[in-house]
Amino acid sequence: MSQAVDEIKIGGIGASRKRVEDNRFIRGKGNYTDDIVLPGMLHMEILRSPLAHARIKSIDASKAWDIPGVHLVLTGEMMATRNLAWMPTLSYDTQAVLATDKVRFQGQEVACVIADDPYIAKDACEAIVVDYEPLPVIVNPAQAVADGAPVIRDDKENQPDNVIYDWEVGDGEGTERAFASADLVSKLELHYPRSHPSPIECCGSIADFNRATSKLTVYMTTQAPHIIRAAVAMVAELPEHMIRIISPDIGGGFGNKVPVYPGYVCSILASILLERPVKWIEDKSGNLISTGFARDVYLKGEMALRRDGKILAVRMHTDADHGAFFSDAQPSKFKIGLMHSAFAAYDIPVAHLTARGTYSNKAPGGVAYRCSFRVTEAMFFQERMMQAAADDLGMDQAEFRRMNFVPDDAFPHRTAFGFLTDSGQYAKCLDVGLRAIDYQNFRQQQAQARSRGRLLGLGISTMTEPLGAGNSREYDILGIKMFDSAELKVHLTGKAIVRTGARTQGQGHETTWAQIVAHELGIPAEDVVVEEGDTDTAPFGMGTYASRSTPVAGAAVAMVSRKIRAKARKLAAHLLEVSEEDIEWELGRFYIRSAPDRGVTIQECAVAAYANMPDGMEPGLDATAYYDPPNLTWPFAVYIVTVEVDPQTGVWDVLNMVAVDDCGVRINPMIVEGQIMGGLTEAYAMSNMQFITFDADGNCVGANYMDYLLPTAWETPGFELHSEVVTPCPHHPIGAKGIGECAAVGGPAAFVNAVMDAISGTGVRNIDMPLLPDRVWEAVTYRRDISGAPPVRSDD
């Protein structure tokens, strides 16, 4: 006799279960890379270039060698003797580990010192004398392609200029025909500025090479342990099975901890040479000026329109500033990431996108900072263009979007750029948001306030974002297909352990993966332990970034659970002495179809797997699943913001912010809400205060947290979240679509659109982010667009 279990009570899907990992974090018991101390461990510090572009005439490290406690000084010349001066990037380019011929951005790694403690190592770095010959500096794509521009990558053969790629997608001829028939063409140019993920924990590693076993163990702050292991094997020429990458607790990643950084390589070589563990922990300034940035893309957009508001076609050109090396972490096939996911929520007949990537004297990167490979830029450009087009038509912002949405009955829908969106209720989400913001009443208040000299504005951003890249037909990084994996072992007592190829850094995997197992097997979530981040124990996976957790790794957890359930069904038939065809399942138990009262629990099946299995069955109850997603998932969101702008100071305040997210099935509603709030906070920061740029000499302006502002509880506005609309993903095993990035992707445009709406009577068409008070004041006062593109005056 047995009975089904209550899914919410056992912590299954739909339960707002508290994050189990927080038990250690709130007690200060997290185990981060810098917490790890190994016997005989040495410390490494990096000497960085103060110049953005300069020839290295000489490096004199003699005084550094003379400092007591210094064990090793590495330079580019020494790295070159071991074929380690350069390393491959995730975009098939090369990147200097330590500079040899010249430095190409401020903050580039020039030398490193390994010593008894980090203070000695830092003092020794300051004793190294480098003779630089300054060279002309490039800080934007226009400079990069100008006549006579210095070639930044003169180390490369067949690289006569600074252009990395020219890429296009869509129907160019069809788009031209549509524009020729348009009643109106709306145009917009803008710049999505460089931004930095700024994780609270900087990058770091501890390399420990054991000469006796020839095994290299590296503890490091990586979001993708298996990819790093493969990269280390290629760079260091070590056999992959003799490399163990351990990613302990991570203090935030946001894409910043996906790439391979020179510090990792240097610490590994130092450990091999010295045969002692070597720790490298980056400081905040080093993180801001040298590690993977995001965005820094320029748009020229055009929209062909009918007078009634129907969009006939879209034409976009983007220029991406990739810095000194092309090191984007993105699918190989798409040079500008998934920029062509723009306008996927809208029923647009034809579109064409051209993109050009260029080198500059800035830190490399292009990481997917809380986005799926340039999707944040795509959605920002999309929604800024939508607002500009509605204004040009004299149409209501909400109605213009509504009339161009893909209708509910048109799914699956092939977008103008070739993506296949599978489900959504876009108009319903918009209606929920408009009711929550009290749209019509606000418009009346806005008109009344304007008559009294007050500037109120309302901004809308509606978007569907592609998550879960992606199917092996189209998506790979370094040739490795972008599947993911899960391993599940159910012990004799019915307790279980899940290991995945993903790596949590705040998403709550230890909580939600257990909830998926509970949903599939009826094992209480508290009886399921989740482990990730160790390449010696976890199945191969692509890691966690670009919102791949639930769409891919979470799907793998569901699929491996179903493998376990399939074997447990055979065990249940054996225990109940019936054929497998006579067995039915309900959560937590199998029962006989003709005698529902006779059944066995999943825990009883676990015991049988070790103690009473049928003849011919392999003992144990464990399995591994690799999930290759058939398509991307497509969550939809509506973000609506109201603001008031002070025309005398340019300061703008958020009055209200409404978020409507349809992310499919919500595994843990509380965690989902936390992800949305975090994303909206980052969206607000990007639109309002986060400013990192460069002057004409390539100096990084905003290389500290006095200038590059992170939002606190004091500045961050309140958010009103709505979850009424749920459209399950038809191809995902549990119907989930993902949520971690959506608010950071779609949110910035809502804030900017609100400010632009408030000052709409000034004739200003665009102010580049961040909308700092001085920019808004200048735009209102002088009635002109404001560009934030570098170079800026360093004395501003």
Could you please describe the fold and organization of this structure?
The radius of gyration is 28 Å and the shape is globular. A hairpin with a 5-residue loop joins strand 15 and strand 16 (311-321). The protein contains 19 helices and 34 strands. Helix content is 28%, strand content 25%. With 796 residues, it is of the alpha+beta class. Helix 10 packs parallel to helix 18 (742-758) and helix 14 runs parallel beside helix 15 (549-576). The longest helix has 28 residues, at 549-576.
Count of β-strands? 34
Specify Rg, calculated over alpha carbons. Answer: 28 Å
% residues in beta strands = 15-25%
Helix segment count?
Answer: 19
Helix-strand category:
alpha+beta
Helix amount: 25-40%
The biggest beta sheet, please? 7 strands, mixed
Low-confidence stretches: none
Strand order of the largest sheet: 3-7-1-14-11-12-13
Approximate shape: globular
**N-C termini distance:** 77 Å
Q: Average the pLDDT over all residues and give the rounded result.
A: 96
